[in-house]
Amino acid sequence: MSRTEVELVEAANTTFYETMERGDFDELSSLWLDEGISCIHPGWPVLSGRGEVLRSYALIMANTEYIQFFLTDVKVSLAGDTALVTCTENILSGGPAEESGELGPLVGQLVVATNVFRRTSDGWKMWSHHGSPVLAESDEEEDDETPS
Q1: Range of the structural domain that residue 128 is part of
Q2: Residue 3 contacts by C-beta under 8 Å, 6 or more apart in sequence?
Q3: Which parts pass through the membrane (predicted)?
Q4: Which pLDDT score is estimated for 3?
Q5: Average pLDDT, integer, range 110-117
Q6: Would residue 100 count as lying in a domain?
Q7: Of 9, 143, 5, 7, which is closest to residue 84 (Cα–Cα)?
Q8: How many C-beta atoms lie closer than 10 Å to residue 61's C-beta?
Q9: pLDDT tens for residues 76-97?
Q10: Is 142 part of any domain?
């Protein structure tokens, strides 16, 4: 049974995050289109072009000893040869090792992301990634604090 286009886009999106977790820069590079790409990491300016975008991932990988993504709220929309994926990145990461050689403290972070893919002859490739930190509390928590 052949996979649907939505399943293929979901697989491309998952591969992107798994590649980051493994720190496989060569594979990560192969997941992006060759031209016209952009990336916004949380708190960073817009990065445009293959050189800038891939340099940013090399820098992140060089300074992140451990990273794991738990994706939630994944939604895929297709329009011809373009796919839009929105998701929440529940990130657990650790910085460079301490003097003792142990992994630095683990830090949790919540980021909402939009990933745009283009269909190519080699499958779905990343066109743009935009991650924004979640700073606001959830509606449920706000409701609990409403004065009566």
Answers
A1: 5-135
A2: 11
A3: none
A4: 78
A5: 97
A6: yes
A7: 9
A8: 17
A9: 999 999 999 999 999 998 866 6
A10: no
Q: Is residue 75 part of a domain?
A: yes
List own/partner pairs for 24-28 with CB under 8 A and 24 or more apart. Answer: 25/54, 25/57, 25/58, 25/61, 28/54, 28/57
Helix (H) / strand (E) containing 77:
strand 66-79
What CATH code is carried by the domain that includes residue 119?
Answer: 3.10.450.50
**Residue 1 binned pLDDT confidence (cut-offs 50, 70, 90):** very low
Based on C-alpha coordinates, what's the Rg of the chain? 17
d(CA 94, CA 146): 36
Q: What is the pLDDT of residues 54-78, one digit of tens each?
A: 999 999 999 888 999 999 999 999 9
Number of domains in the chain: 1
101 phi and psi angles, rounded to 5 deg:
90, 0
Phi, psi of 112 (to 5 degrees): -95, 135
Tokens encoding 61: 């990988």
Cβ-count burial of 39 within 10 angstroms (0-12 exposed, 13-18 middle, 19+ buried)?
A: buried
Is 123 within a domain?
A: yes
